[in-house]
Amino acid sequence: MRSLLFLQACLAAVGVSASNVDLEENIYDAQAYKPRQLMTRQIRPAAPVSGPRIGGPVWKPQIGQKVQVILDRRVAQLTQFSRVTPEQADIWDLDLFDTTKQTIDVLHANGKRVICYLSVGGSESWRPDFLTIPKSDLGDVMPKWKGERYLNLRSPTVWRLMQDRIKMAYDKGCDGIDPDNVDPFNDDFERGGGFTPPLTEADSVDYLRNLSAEAHYYGMAVGMKNAESILANVTDFIEFAVNEECATYSTDEDGCMLYVPFLAKGKPVFHFEYVNVNSPSLFSRGAPSIQSVYKNWANLSSADILSYYCLQNNFGFPYLPNSTVGAMFSTAVKKLDLGGWVMYCDGTYAETPTAQTVGGPDRELDPGWRGKESQRGGKGKSGGLEMTSPTGPQAGGSPSGGLLGWLTGGGRDS
């Protein structure tokens, strides 16, 4: 404080108003070759947080917090001296089995919260507890996901397995759980997961209610991924929602507007959209360009893609909220492989150092192996805005090129 007052006095002595100099937000880079170059002060580390405890308060994430999600790889081993990247990510969504307690402890020491991903409605043949699942509790194969079959959500054996996994999350210090595949009723074959009788929406609601009660016992928050058709029925007993590509699928009723009542209750939506990334050249200081993973969106500019995915310009689509509501979504733009790269709506981007998953193959060689969930009305990547569609939007009248012209110029698939 004394040095700051001294600097203000010196500025006043030479006739420079301190109000014209941003002393808090920028500092002079004395090592820079060019004089008077400003560099932004690094984000101040958040205060350390502690993990959950039995009988303690349930952690409640807040609207607007930034999130990083890494599932196909694991965060490279962190130590107390590690720099956590990206610094601006408040919440980290990481795989329960692949993430060590040490990693979670370091993230907590840096003021970060950790959500642990686990599949609660699908078997995963590479998990260490897979062989404990009776064959009678394994349903249809998930055609888009290697090594996965639907689980019988009504089974006491499956429930005991999930209790063990939730206890594992608590023992590792997870602040919340991200339960995937909660909607076998919405499977590709319309067979309710392949069970008799078929699994229903009511089964999923009851199952998630039990999962929530179990996690809350340990002081952990619970979310729900996609499964928008039951969102209204589970809102009261979950703390957050996870959505994949509601902006991409805004051309039908599965738009982001379905999450507005959830946000109105003060509960956050962690929203992920997927892109291909073209890195800048070695000698360029520019940001990488991003491109939709769908070929019929391939000619849209980076600016259009970011503003659209971040719900800041709905370009006339009826199922997207206005920019004020859109800003309430915690949006992160990711590569399909769900590795370390992430971009936020303010244009900042980073890449978290990652390593091969523990005891498993390097899944980055098989991009999207877990990545985005396919259970969105059976569409996945094969319907709606088809990844391999030969028809693409025509560049047009948008100030930054592409999307508006596509809407008005007939380039949109019917």
TrEMBL record:
Molecular function terms, GO-annotated: alpha-galactosidase activity
Ranges of residues in domain Glycoside-hydrolase family GH114 TIM-barrel: 79-278
A Pfam family recorded for this sequence: Glyco_hydro_114
Reaction(s) catalysed by this chain's protein: Hydrolysis of terminal, non-reducing alpha-D-galactose residues in alpha-D-galactosides, including galactose oligosaccharides, galactomannans and galactolipids
Presence of keyword Transferase: no
UniProt keyword annotation of Phosphoprotein present: no
InterPro entries: Aldolase_TIM, GH, GH114_TIM-barrel
Enzyme class: hydrolase
Residues annotated as signal peptide: 1-18
Segments passing through the bilayer: none
Ranges of Basic and acidic residues composition bias in the record: 361-376
EC number: 3.2.1.22
Gly residues bias: start-end ranges: 394-414
This protein's UniProt keywords: Signal
Region: Disordered, residue numbers: 353-414
Name under which the protein is recorded: alpha-galactosidase
Source organism per UniProt: Microthyrium microscopicum
